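Hi R.,

As promised, here are both runs. First protein below:
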Amino acid sequence: MNIMERLKRLGPGLVTGAADDDPSGIATYSQAGAQFGPSLMWTMTLAYPLMVAVQLACARVGRVTGHGLGRSLNAVFPRWLVIGLIALLFIANTINVGADLAAMGEASALVIGGWKRTATVAFALLSLLLQIYVPYHRYSSILKWMTLVLLAYVALILMVKVDWSAAARGLVIPTIAGAGAITTIVAIFGTTISPYLFFWQAAQEVEELDQIKERQPLSRARAQAAEALRRIRWDTFTGMAVSTVVALAIILGTATTLHAAGKTDIQSAADAAQALKPIAGKFAFALFSLGIIGTGLLAVPVLAGSSAYAVCEIGGWNGSLEASGRKSPPSIISAPFTRRPMRSSSRSAPTLPTTCPWVGRRALSKRWKAR
């Protein structure tokens, strides 16, 4: 299999890994690099196999069962426990979406000027409208191409003078410099291995089943297992590697510039971008800022979508990004009923497109169970 064929096989795993490096994550990695230099790079070496293991399990759940993670959890654990977990996911994701949108607004204001609140609202509306009006088979392609924005942070490394011997030591030798480093390590693992990624990748495997009629859940089509599991492994290993390399690039880039210059007080991704300007130059500043905006446009729909998928699954509905929202305008509460066939039944079930503020997921297609 040549390289182009391998690249075409990338999908949910690649997007999931890229979405891991959202503006909030960029802020965490920037703080680590600015405060502790390259000494905490080893955390990403340790995090990579953990990320792969967890995401592989989630992807396999979706591919084997044909259902998302929420529905699968509901089949094993008490319902009250699953509802509580998904409520926590919903709250955390909503806060994270707000933080990412705010960071995107700040970065936009730094690069092109204007009011950051206006830019924040504009990015929120853009993300919401894309999710409502662009069906999954197109939107997934957009998300895959948007992962290229992460190259901005790799390019940053090429623009600064890196102490590669210190970087190599930081990558393989665990170092903990006090209580502050412990807090940062916890933050790094928290932002790298996040629950919204679990729900998103499992749900995307289910979406992929809906796109190709020949594909069936592996529980009903074991003959497809070998090929499907090979694809999932390649996709997940690659996606998590992309996430890890970008995180390392951010830590190393801020360590080489901000830490070396004594700029350690970084509170957000926008702070890191602004602090880079007098040290690494205007181009590095612009590159870092545009990276914040690009990763935000990639991560916000993943955060919002994972909440929506989880809510649909625990509610007993099938939610899909593929269902069209063109025939009815988006509404904060609800929109008219339409009908579409359910995958698991020959009967049709009503679909209720619904959108929520902040959780702006594509008009949640809730296909109510046939009674």
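And here is the second one, sequence first, then its structure tokens:
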Amino acid sequence: MGNPKPKGICDGCGKSPRTLTQIESGQWICVTCLREIRGPQRPKHLATPEQIATLRKQGFDVSDDLPKAEYRRLTTMITLRSRSVPFNSSATLEELEELEYRNYINHRSVNLAGVSHNNRDGTNRQQIIRRCSAGELLRLKAEDDNPVYPNAVAVIRLNGEQLGYLHSEEAEEVRKGSQEGWLYAAIINKILDDGVKGHYLGVGLILVYARSTADTAIIKEHIANLIRKYQEAH
């Protein structure tokens, strides 16, 4: 603890002058009632020190009194940059958010279902998977006549060979999203092989989704970057 210091009147116990001491956390407390004495609070309209530090790590030269609105504007710029969306660095927050909304594109990891079954034409999915590699672009096709699951979405190579299906949760999302104007594609993340003889190969996928309002060139570049990333990783 720090050395006690008499100062002012304690709001907790009313002692005057109150005697303060500093504890290990750096906080000052009244030695009579142990009430914490808080220093001046940071104005709510300013970004936090942690947020400012994050921006500085991204290369932004920002002051310690950065407004929250400017913090949001700069973080939106970071998001747009990560998605290869061109923007004007002097644009307002509203303009950047509108640009982000129209060009929204993202991706996430999912696993392929049905890899152990044969296709309707008799082809063996395991043999097809052995011919695949990480970074391969795939098509998604709604299979309305599927006898088991009416919302099925098949995952198909560009040459027409079927690897399997999306799991039901992703299949329903793709079906519903497609009707609402979203665009979807899939990329092979990795071939899952535990090395045990007799075990089936699995396939890890990257599900890519974008608003139909997104610029086609931006979508293509985003997909190309993902393909390059997973090809180089394997």
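A quick note on the second one: The mean pLDDT is 89. Let me know what you think.

Best,
J.
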